[in-house]
Amino acid sequence: MQSKETLQAFTILLVDDRPENLISLEELLIQPGRRFIKAQSGNEALRQVLKHENIGLIMLDVQMPDMDGFEVARILKSNAKTKDISIIFVTALSREEHFILKGFEEGAVDYLPKPLDINVVRAKVNVFEQLYLHQVELKSTLSELKRINKQLEQFVYIVSHDLKSPLSSMMLLMELIREDELVIANPELKENIDLLHGASGRLSNMIASLLEHSRTSLANHAIEKVNTSELVREVVALLFPPDQMTINIREPLPVINTHKIGLQQVFQNLLSNAIKYNDKEKGLIEIGASDKGHWVEFYVKDNGPGIADNDQERIFKLFETTAHHSSRDSSTGIGLNLLKVLVEGQGGKIWVDSVKDEGSTFYFEWEKNH
């Protein structure tokens, strides 16, 4: 098994049929954090590539007996496991354009003519080393994101499952209350009980959808036709905005083909925040959309406390909050980060335009047809 230090090193495979050239090239490029593997033929080079999984760069001589560098590159590029390894051809062949083009056609990413210019060789290898290390870091980050997303899905499933049972009991109890003679005799009370019962039903459906959402990844969900106007109205009804809050939906909102649950979560979070944090005597929220070709650009606008300039980028980061807090609820700093993940997960972006004490407008892009 390779050590952690070996896996983190930048491994360079040097291929040349002349041992003195291999020694010279290693001496030229040696520095801390680099590891060198040598091969004196095309066949040996292929064996070394199969043996070592973390090669970051191949310095490949073109003129070799039995199998030349062009053929080695062609074989490597035809294999799914080795096709992404960077190759620099090192050759004394003619500098004429057709020789250089042949190298690029066979999969080279650069070309160094002999005799080698020491400064040029070192500079190019430094660039490829930085690119390789950035790629490794990116892969590690993506792996960590997948792990976190998996944990979040498990968390959503557990919470949704635990909520479903008490909610069912509440709905059953409300059914009994609705049939009570005292409630039937009081129209205002009956209306309020009916509102609670309807909201509980919508919440139950949402929890059922979340359970389904957490069982499989978003990518595996069926695409469905979504009337976003109906979707927004359902979300607003579920949130029970207070009487002093006016919510305007600027019609028409589009009908799109998408994953409904993700879009619903975005609207629910933005509208919930706009209601929760509004500090005005007469709250106002506006929802609208504009056609951007392949995308729909939705917005949720409010006349609330606004967000300071230095907080507008920060609020989309995990566990980040602003100095403003609602008297009705606390913020964990998770919601807007989850929205960012949902929106960017389908290729769009989310941003905010806000003036302190005057209000905020959250914009997000959503693909029309997934």
Q: TL;DR?
A:
The protein is an alpha/beta fold and 370 residues long.
Ordered list of secondary-structure elements with their pairings:
Layout: H1 4-8, E1 10-15, H2 19-29, E2 34-39, H3 42-51, E3 55-61, H4 69-78, E4 86-91, H5 97-105, E5 110-113, H6 118-178, H7 181-184, H8 187-215, E6 224-227, H9 228-239, E7 245-249, E8 255-258, H10 260-276, E9 283-292, E10 295-302, H11 335-345, E11 350-355, E12 359-367
Parallel strand pairs: 1-2, 1-3, 3-4, 4-5, 7-9
Antiparallel strand pairs: 6-8, 9-10, 10-12, 11-12
Helix pairs in contact: 3-4, 6-8, 8-9, 9-10, 10-11
Pfam families: HATPase_c (PF02518), HisKA (PF00512), Response_reg (PF00072)
Keywords: Kinase, Phosphoprotein, Transferase
Catalytic activity: ATP + protein L-histidine = ADP + protein N-phospho-L-histidine
Write a structural description:
The structure is a single chain. The chain is of the alpha/beta class and 370 residues long. It has 3 domains: 8-116, Response regulator (Rossmann fold); 142-215, Helix Hairpins, CATH 1.10.287; 221-370, 2-Layer Sandwich (Heat Shock Protein 90), CATH 3.30.565.10. It has helices at 4-8, 19-29, 42-51, 69-78, 97-105, 118-178, 181-184, 187-215, 228-239, 260-276, 335-345; strands spanning 10-15, 34-39, 55-61, 86-91, 110-113, 224-227, 245-249, 255-258, 283-292, 295-302, 350-355, 359-367. The strands form 3 sheets. A 5-stranded parallel β-sheet has the order 2-1-3-4-5, with helices on both faces. It has a 5-stranded mixed β-sheet with strand order 7-9-10-12-11. A two-stranded antiparallel ribbon has the order 6-8. Strand 3 (55-61), helix 4 and strand 4 form a beta-alpha-beta unit. It is elongated.
